[in-house]
Amino acid sequence: MIKTDKTQIVEKIQKLREILSSKEEKFQNPIYSLKKAEQEFLRTFLCRKRVGKYVETAVEQIKQNPEFSEIIDTIEPSIADISLLLGKEWSHISNLLRSKELGKKYPINIVPYNPLWKEMYQKEARFLQETFFGTIVRTEHFGSTAIPGLAAKPVIDILVELISFNTAEKKVLPVLQSLGYGYNWISNIPPGHIMCMKGYKENQEETVRFHLHMAPAKHPIWKDLLFRDYLLKNPEIAQKYEDLKYRLAEKYHYDREAYTEGKSPFIKSIMKHTCKEKE
After folding, report:
1. Number of Cβ atoms within 10 Å of the Cβ of 81
2. Top-level CATH class of 116-278?
3. Could you tell me the residue ranges of all domains in the chain?
4. What are 132-191's pLDDT values in tens digits?
5. Cα dist. 178→156, 170, 172, 183 in Å?
Protein backbone atom coordinates (compact mmCIF):
# COMPACT_ATOMS: atom_id res chain seq x y z
CA MET A 1 0.00 0.00 0.00
CA ILE A 2 1.43 3.40 -0.92
CA LYS A 3 1.38 6.41 1.36
CA THR A 4 -1.34 8.10 -0.70
CA ASP A 5 -3.67 5.20 0.02
CA LYS A 6 -2.97 5.55 3.73
CA THR A 7 -3.85 9.24 3.67
CA GLN A 8 -7.00 8.63 1.64
CA ILE A 9 -8.28 5.90 3.95
CA VAL A 10 -7.73 8.02 7.06
CA GLU A 11 -9.54 10.92 5.39
CA LYS A 12 -12.49 8.69 4.40
CA ILE A 13 -12.75 7.25 7.91
CA GLN A 14 -12.66 10.75 9.40
CA LYS A 15 -15.35 11.93 6.99
CA LEU A 16 -17.58 9.00 7.93
CA ARG A 17 -17.09 9.73 11.63
CA GLU A 18 -18.03 13.38 11.05
CA ILE A 19 -21.27 12.35 9.31
CA LEU A 20 -22.22 10.05 12.18
CA SER A 21 -21.20 12.63 14.79
CA SER A 22 -23.62 15.13 13.25
CA LYS A 23 -26.46 12.84 14.36
CA GLU A 24 -26.03 13.89 17.98
CA GLU A 25 -25.19 10.80 20.09
CA LYS A 26 -27.16 8.21 18.15
CA PHE A 27 -24.18 6.44 16.58
CA GLN A 28 -21.64 6.34 19.41
CA ASN A 29 -20.70 2.67 19.02
CA PRO A 30 -19.78 2.81 15.31
CA ILE A 31 -18.02 6.15 15.89
CA TYR A 32 -15.86 4.43 18.51
CA SER A 33 -15.11 1.52 16.14
CA LEU A 34 -14.12 3.94 13.37
CA LYS A 35 -11.89 5.84 15.80
CA LYS A 36 -10.14 2.56 16.64
CA ALA A 37 -9.72 1.86 12.91
CA GLU A 38 -8.18 5.27 12.40
CA GLN A 39 -5.80 4.84 15.36
CA GLU A 40 -4.80 1.38 14.16
CA PHE A 41 -4.09 2.73 10.71
CA LEU A 42 -1.98 5.60 11.98
CA ARG A 43 -0.05 3.19 14.20
CA THR A 44 0.66 0.55 11.56
CA PHE A 45 -1.02 1.14 8.21
CA LEU A 46 0.34 -2.15 6.84
CA CYS A 47 -2.08 -4.17 8.96
CA ARG A 48 -5.23 -3.96 6.86
CA LYS A 49 -6.84 -6.90 8.66
CA ARG A 50 -7.31 -5.11 12.00
CA VAL A 51 -8.37 -1.88 10.28
CA GLY A 52 -10.85 -3.74 8.09
CA LYS A 53 -12.32 -5.55 11.09
CA TYR A 54 -12.98 -2.27 12.91
CA VAL A 55 -14.67 -0.80 9.82
CA GLU A 56 -16.69 -3.98 9.35
CA THR A 57 -17.81 -3.81 12.99
CA ALA A 58 -18.80 -0.16 12.56
CA VAL A 59 -20.99 -1.02 9.55
CA GLU A 60 -22.74 -3.79 11.48
CA GLN A 61 -23.35 -1.40 14.39
CA ILE A 62 -24.74 1.25 12.04
CA LYS A 63 -27.16 -1.31 10.59
CA GLN A 64 -28.55 -2.06 14.05
CA ASN A 65 -29.44 1.58 14.67
CA PRO A 66 -33.17 2.45 14.33
CA GLU A 67 -32.25 5.47 12.18
CA PHE A 68 -30.10 3.42 9.80
CA SER A 69 -32.50 3.81 6.84
CA GLU A 70 -32.33 7.60 7.12
CA ILE A 71 -28.56 7.75 6.86
CA ILE A 72 -27.66 4.93 4.47
CA ASP A 73 -27.63 7.05 1.30
CA THR A 74 -25.38 9.63 2.96
CA ILE A 75 -22.76 7.22 4.29
CA GLU A 76 -22.73 4.67 1.47
CA PRO A 77 -20.22 6.55 -0.77
CA SER A 78 -17.71 6.85 2.09
CA ILE A 79 -18.01 3.17 3.02
CA ALA A 80 -17.65 2.13 -0.63
CA ASP A 81 -14.49 4.24 -0.93
CA ILE A 82 -13.01 2.79 2.26
CA SER A 83 -13.65 -0.81 1.22
CA LEU A 84 -12.14 -0.13 -2.21
CA LEU A 85 -9.00 1.42 -0.71
CA LEU A 86 -8.59 -1.41 1.80
CA GLY A 87 -8.42 -3.92 -1.06
CA LYS A 88 -10.59 -6.59 -2.66
CA GLU A 89 -10.54 -8.79 0.45
CA TRP A 90 -12.68 -6.10 2.11
CA SER A 91 -15.03 -5.43 -0.81
CA HIS A 92 -17.83 -7.19 1.10
CA ILE A 93 -18.01 -4.29 3.58
CA SER A 94 -19.91 -2.09 1.15
CA ASN A 95 -22.26 -5.00 0.40
CA LEU A 96 -23.05 -5.40 4.11
CA LEU A 97 -24.62 -1.98 4.11
CA ARG A 98 -27.42 -3.04 1.77
CA SER A 99 -27.84 -6.61 3.03
CA LYS A 100 -31.15 -5.84 4.76
CA GLU A 101 -32.56 -4.31 1.59
CA LEU A 102 -31.36 -7.31 -0.41
CA GLY A 103 -33.11 -9.59 2.06
CA LYS A 104 -36.40 -7.82 1.45
CA LYS A 105 -35.92 -7.80 -2.32
CA TYR A 106 -34.77 -11.41 -2.51
CA PRO A 107 -36.30 -13.29 0.45
CA ILE A 108 -35.37 -16.85 1.38
CA ASN A 109 -37.63 -19.23 -0.52
CA ILE A 110 -37.12 -22.98 -0.18
CA VAL A 111 -38.77 -24.96 -2.97
CA PRO A 112 -39.08 -28.71 -3.64
CA TYR A 113 -36.28 -30.39 -5.57
CA ASN A 114 -36.42 -29.81 -9.32
CA PRO A 115 -34.77 -32.45 -11.57
CA LEU A 116 -34.05 -29.68 -14.09
CA TRP A 117 -31.48 -28.18 -11.73
CA LYS A 118 -28.95 -30.82 -12.82
CA GLU A 119 -29.54 -29.99 -16.49
CA MET A 120 -29.20 -26.27 -15.76
CA TYR A 121 -25.85 -26.91 -14.10
CA GLN A 122 -24.65 -29.06 -17.00
CA LYS A 123 -25.61 -26.42 -19.56
CA GLU A 124 -23.85 -23.62 -17.66
CA ALA A 125 -20.81 -25.82 -17.00
CA ARG A 126 -20.46 -26.62 -20.72
CA PHE A 127 -20.65 -22.93 -21.54
CA LEU A 128 -17.92 -22.11 -19.01
CA GLN A 129 -15.62 -24.91 -20.12
CA GLU A 130 -16.00 -24.08 -23.82
CA THR A 131 -15.76 -20.31 -23.41
CA PHE A 132 -12.79 -20.35 -21.05
CA PHE A 133 -10.91 -23.40 -22.28
CA GLY A 134 -7.38 -23.30 -20.87
CA THR A 135 -8.35 -20.87 -18.10
CA ILE A 136 -10.94 -22.94 -16.25
CA VAL A 137 -9.74 -26.40 -15.23
CA ARG A 138 -12.99 -28.02 -14.06
CA THR A 139 -16.41 -27.33 -12.57
CA GLU A 140 -18.44 -29.01 -9.83
CA HIS A 141 -22.14 -28.71 -8.98
CA PHE A 142 -22.40 -28.17 -5.23
CA GLY A 143 -24.81 -26.64 -2.77
CA SER A 144 -28.30 -27.97 -2.10
CA THR A 145 -29.42 -28.06 -5.73
CA ALA A 146 -26.74 -30.71 -6.31
CA ILE A 147 -28.47 -33.16 -3.95
CA PRO A 148 -31.28 -35.15 -5.67
CA GLY A 149 -34.52 -34.92 -3.72
CA LEU A 150 -33.35 -32.08 -1.45
CA ALA A 151 -35.51 -28.95 -1.22
CA ALA A 152 -33.45 -25.81 -1.76
CA LYS A 153 -33.32 -22.18 -2.74
CA PRO A 154 -33.46 -22.16 -6.57
CA VAL A 155 -29.78 -21.23 -6.90
CA ILE A 156 -27.36 -23.29 -8.97
CA ASP A 157 -24.02 -23.13 -7.14
CA ILE A 158 -21.05 -24.00 -9.33
CA LEU A 159 -17.52 -24.44 -8.02
CA VAL A 160 -15.01 -23.44 -10.68
CA GLU A 161 -11.33 -24.37 -10.58
CA LEU A 162 -9.10 -21.61 -11.92
CA ILE A 163 -5.51 -21.69 -13.05
CA SER A 164 -5.02 -18.52 -11.02
CA PHE A 165 -6.96 -15.51 -9.73
CA ASN A 166 -4.86 -13.15 -11.86
CA THR A 167 -5.69 -15.02 -15.06
CA ALA A 168 -9.39 -15.09 -14.17
CA GLU A 169 -9.47 -11.34 -13.47
CA LYS A 170 -7.99 -10.65 -16.89
CA LYS A 171 -9.70 -13.26 -19.08
CA VAL A 172 -12.82 -14.51 -17.31
CA LEU A 173 -14.41 -11.67 -15.35
CA PRO A 174 -14.73 -9.18 -18.25
CA VAL A 175 -16.59 -11.76 -20.33
CA LEU A 176 -18.89 -12.87 -17.52
CA GLN A 177 -19.72 -9.28 -16.59
CA SER A 178 -20.57 -8.51 -20.23
CA LEU A 179 -23.02 -11.44 -20.11
CA GLY A 180 -24.88 -10.17 -17.06
CA TYR A 181 -22.94 -11.73 -14.22
CA GLY A 182 -22.29 -9.55 -11.20
CA TYR A 183 -18.95 -9.82 -9.39
CA ASN A 184 -17.91 -9.84 -5.75
CA TRP A 185 -14.77 -10.79 -3.89
CA ILE A 186 -15.91 -13.06 -1.04
CA SER A 187 -13.56 -13.05 1.94
CA ASN A 188 -15.40 -15.28 4.45
CA ILE A 189 -13.02 -18.18 3.64
CA PRO A 190 -9.46 -16.81 3.68
CA PRO A 191 -7.76 -15.88 1.43
CA GLY A 192 -11.07 -15.11 -0.33
CA HIS A 193 -12.44 -16.15 -3.70
CA ILE A 194 -14.21 -14.79 -6.76
CA MET A 195 -18.00 -15.02 -6.84
CA CYS A 196 -20.06 -14.20 -9.92
CA MET A 197 -23.88 -14.11 -9.81
CA LYS A 198 -26.59 -14.07 -12.44
CA GLY A 199 -30.35 -13.64 -12.09
CA TYR A 200 -30.60 -10.62 -9.76
CA LYS A 201 -31.46 -7.85 -12.21
CA GLU A 202 -34.29 -5.45 -11.47
CA ASN A 203 -37.71 -6.58 -12.73
CA GLN A 204 -36.23 -9.93 -13.79
CA GLU A 205 -38.63 -12.83 -13.51
CA GLU A 206 -36.04 -15.62 -13.59
CA THR A 207 -36.89 -18.36 -11.11
CA VAL A 208 -33.37 -19.80 -10.97
CA ARG A 209 -30.15 -17.95 -10.23
CA PHE A 210 -26.53 -18.94 -10.72
CA HIS A 211 -23.63 -18.46 -8.31
CA LEU A 212 -20.12 -19.19 -9.58
CA HIS A 213 -17.57 -19.71 -6.80
CA MET A 214 -14.13 -19.47 -8.42
CA ALA A 215 -10.76 -20.40 -6.93
CA PRO A 216 -7.58 -22.39 -7.70
CA ALA A 217 -7.39 -26.08 -6.81
CA LYS A 218 -5.82 -25.85 -3.34
CA HIS A 219 -8.16 -23.15 -2.04
CA PRO A 220 -10.03 -24.12 1.18
CA ILE A 221 -13.42 -23.64 -0.52
CA TRP A 222 -12.94 -26.97 -2.29
CA LYS A 223 -13.47 -28.67 1.06
CA ASP A 224 -17.15 -27.74 0.67
CA LEU A 225 -17.45 -30.72 -1.65
CA LEU A 226 -17.08 -32.94 1.42
CA PHE A 227 -20.39 -31.62 2.71
CA ARG A 228 -22.08 -32.25 -0.63
CA ASP A 229 -20.69 -35.77 -0.87
CA TYR A 230 -21.73 -36.58 2.69
CA LEU A 231 -25.34 -35.58 2.01
CA LEU A 232 -25.31 -37.62 -1.19
CA LYS A 233 -24.27 -40.71 0.78
CA ASN A 234 -26.54 -40.08 3.79
CA PRO A 235 -30.12 -39.24 2.72
CA GLU A 236 -31.38 -39.27 6.32
CA ILE A 237 -28.91 -36.48 7.18
CA ALA A 238 -29.94 -34.62 4.03
CA GLN A 239 -33.54 -34.78 5.25
CA LYS A 240 -32.54 -33.26 8.60
CA TYR A 241 -30.75 -30.50 6.70
CA GLU A 242 -33.86 -29.87 4.63
CA ASP A 243 -36.02 -29.65 7.76
CA LEU A 244 -33.57 -27.15 9.26
CA LYS A 245 -33.65 -24.99 6.14
CA TYR A 246 -37.44 -24.86 6.10
CA ARG A 247 -37.48 -23.77 9.76
CA LEU A 248 -34.83 -21.12 9.21
CA ALA A 249 -36.48 -19.84 6.02
CA GLU A 250 -39.71 -19.34 7.91
CA LYS A 251 -37.99 -17.61 10.82
CA TYR A 252 -35.58 -15.49 8.76
CA HIS A 253 -37.51 -15.06 5.54
CA TYR A 254 -36.09 -11.59 4.89
CA ASP A 255 -32.74 -11.95 6.67
CA ARG A 256 -30.22 -13.76 4.49
CA GLU A 257 -27.36 -13.33 6.96
CA ALA A 258 -29.31 -14.84 9.88
CA TYR A 259 -30.47 -17.71 7.66
CA THR A 260 -26.88 -18.52 6.68
CA GLU A 261 -25.66 -18.23 10.26
CA GLY A 262 -28.45 -20.53 11.39
CA LYS A 263 -27.20 -23.29 9.08
CA SER A 264 -23.60 -22.90 10.17
CA PRO A 265 -23.56 -25.20 13.27
CA PHE A 266 -25.14 -28.06 11.30
CA ILE A 267 -22.68 -27.68 8.42
CA LYS A 268 -19.69 -27.40 10.75
CA SER A 269 -20.68 -30.57 12.60
CA ILE A 270 -20.89 -32.51 9.33
CA MET A 271 -17.57 -31.11 8.11
CA LYS A 272 -15.92 -32.05 11.39
CA HIS A 273 -17.29 -35.58 11.05
CA THR A 274 -16.15 -35.97 7.44
CA CYS A 275 -12.66 -34.70 8.25
CA LYS A 276 -12.33 -37.29 11.03
CA GLU A 277 -13.41 -40.02 8.61
CA LYS A 278 -10.59 -39.05 6.26
CA GLU A 279 -7.93 -39.18 8.96
Report:
1. 18
2. alpha beta
3. 3-97, 116-278
4. 998 999 999 999 999 999 999 999 999 999 999 999 989 999 999 898 888 888 876 778
5. 20, 13, 10, 11
